[in-house]
From TrEMBL:
Domain remark from Swiss-Prot or TrEMBL: The IMP cyclohydrolase activity resides in the N-terminal region.
Residue stretches making up the MGS-like domain: 1-145
Name assigned to this protein: Bifunctional purine biosynthesis protein PurH
Entry superkingdom: Bacteria
């Protein structure tokens, strides 16, 4: 146990700090502070000593230099049983508790109008130096960097007569180093953005990113694998990471992965829409005048695969939609921007179903990096968020798509972006009819998608077909024609494009090229 006799408090976020200082004072703790924090304590009637009185040196350079002094860092770094003599020689008194949080750098640089000069001025120097010093010397010093730890440290002082345990000091030290690492990562990422002038600089020589654990999980993809869920500190609103769980069991590793896939897909639909995902792939997608109709159409695409699936909506879930789902199927996760009170009441009948509300997401897709670990390394790329519009299309076939066919093609193309390659999607103007995913051969994906449609009792006569990458041979077009497909959308760019176009012409199929591929591995 280590007795707290002297504390240094210097915080940017002053939430709860006056109450903390008042409680420390009641335990007989001498309090040192700086600038605005010291001024607040005086306003609150808490006795406080300015750090400048301890150092004998005023704050200078607009506050850039105030705690960078041997009487501060010596007080934090002095080792019990080793450094008392040198501390006495230089008039250094021990500091037993450090309470510091840093300049709000991330909030500052989040402002699109933030200049480089403003960002630089909001880089905290003295704070991280003190935190690291205190954490390094956790054998004697307690360091608190999170407002949520104020009550815990006070409870420990109350329970142990003004002392803090070794376990608590160590835990706080680990947390402190994570805090400064996160801060340095934010600074690195922000300054890198300021220096970017072309695409070649998007990926820096050293990639820094920080994530905070949101939850431990029972296991990973399989029961023998351990797992946890971490949130990117820069995660935008309206994502699986920021969603609030209203009810249900804890999310599993696979739940999170599938809910993310479903949510990101449904975001691309302009009308009230529904996406049902199973094992990372959409098994039904539809949009309609209302959510209940969209759900009905998505479910009927592949009702077998929908069992135990993940359902995502792009509008608030209403009573009718909730009742239809509860009466019809078993599901793992339901995720949407929000839920009516009646819908939540109905969904509570299925107590194990995880009900997740994301809130509203930005209208435009957020450009972020995505990661894939490989043995000993990391692949990083931009998220695939580029949208093909009708003006981007080219029309190489003799027959041009009719308006309704073009609508179906664009719908199928949006869905294909979220189906694992090789991906084939059969669709009408507002719903999927059959999906073939993840095959080594594109023609096999086409066959599987057609089989799925047949099993669901859905006709492909007059349907649109989307392929996430070009057709290397004409066999995929021949197979589509046999099933009645009348329009095909694909990137183009194969050495055999002419052969494929010729196949479309022979079958009277309207073919559209996007010029963009959507591999999803």
């Amino acid at each position: 146990m280590q007795t707290i006799k002297r504390a240094l408090i210097s915080v940017s976020d002053k939430t709860g700090v006056a109450d903390l200082a008042r409680s420390l004072h009641s335990h007989g703790v001498e309090i040192l502070s700086t600038g605005g924090t010291a001024a607040l304590m005086r306003e609150e009637g808490v006795p406080v000593t300015d750090v400048s009185e301890v150092t004998g040196f005023p704050e200078i350079m607009g506050g850039r230099v105030k705690t960078l002094h041997p009487r501060v860092h010596g007080g934090l770094l002095g080792r019990k049983g080793q450094d008392e003599a040198v501390m006495d020689e230089h008039g250094i008194q021990a500091i037993d508790l450090l309470v510091v949080n840093l300049y709000p750098f991330e909030r500052t640089v989040a402002d699109p109008d933030c200049s480089l000069e403003e960002a630089i001025e909001n880089i905290d120097i003295g704070g991280p130096a003190m935190i690291r010093a205190a954490a390094k010397n956790h054998d004697r010093v307690s360091v608190v960097t999170d407002v949520s730890d104020y009550d815990a440290i006070l409870r420990e002082l109350d329970q142990h007569n003004g002392q803090v345990s070794e376990d608590t000091r160590f835990r706080l030290a680990v947390q402190a180093f994570a805090y400064t690492a996160r801060y340095d990562t934010a600074v690195t990422a922000a300054l890198d953005r300021f220096q970017q002038s072309d695409r070649a600089q998007v990926f820096p020589d050293q990639y820094a990113s920080t994530f905070r654990k949101r939850a431990d999980m029972r296991y990973g993809e399989n029961p023998h694998q351990s797992a946890a869920f971490y949130a990117d500190l820069r995660a935008p609103a309206g994502t699986i990471t920021t969603a609030i769980q209203h009810q249900g069991k804890a999310l599993s590793y696979n739940n999170v992965a599938d809910a993310d896939a479903a949510l990101e897909c449904v975001k691309t639909l302009s009308e009230p829409g529904c996406v049902i995902v199973k094992h990372g792939n959409p098994c039904g997608v539809a949009q309609s005048a209302d959510l209940a109709q969209a759900y009905d159409a998505a479910f009927s695409t592949d009702s077998t695969s929908a069992f135990g699936g993940i359902i995502a909506f792009n509008r608030e879930v209403d009573e009718l939609t909730a009742r239809t789902i509860v009466d019809r199927q078993f599901l793992e996760v339901l995720i949407a921007p929000g839920f009516s009170d009646q819908a939540l009441r109905i969904l509570s009948e299925k107590k194990n179903v995880r009900v997740m509300a994301t809130g509203q997401w930005p209208d435009a897709p957020v450009r972020q990096h995505e990661f894939k670990r490989v043995a000993g390394g990391l692949l990083i790329q931009d998220r695939d968020v580029d949208i093909v519009t009708e003006s981007d299309l080219s029309f190489p076939s003799r027959r041009q798509p009719a308006a309704e066919e073009l609508k179906a093609l664009m719908f199928a193309w949006r869905v294909a972006r979220f189906v694992k390659s090789n991906a084939i999607v059969y669709a009408g103007p507002d719903r999927t009819l059959g999906i073939g995913a993840g095959q080594m051969s594109r023609v096999d994906s086409a066959r599987i998608g057609a089989i799925k449609a047949e099993q669901a009792g859905l006709s492909l006569d007059g349907a649109a077909m989307a392929s996430d990458a070009f057709f290397p041979f004409r066999d995929g077009i021949d197979a589509a024609a046999e099933r009645g497909v009348k329009a095909v959308i694909q990137p183009g760019g194969s050495r055999r494009d002419e052969e494929v176009i010729q196949a479309a012409n022979e079958h009277g199929i309207a073919m559209v090229f996007t010029g963009m591929r959507h591999f999803r591995h």
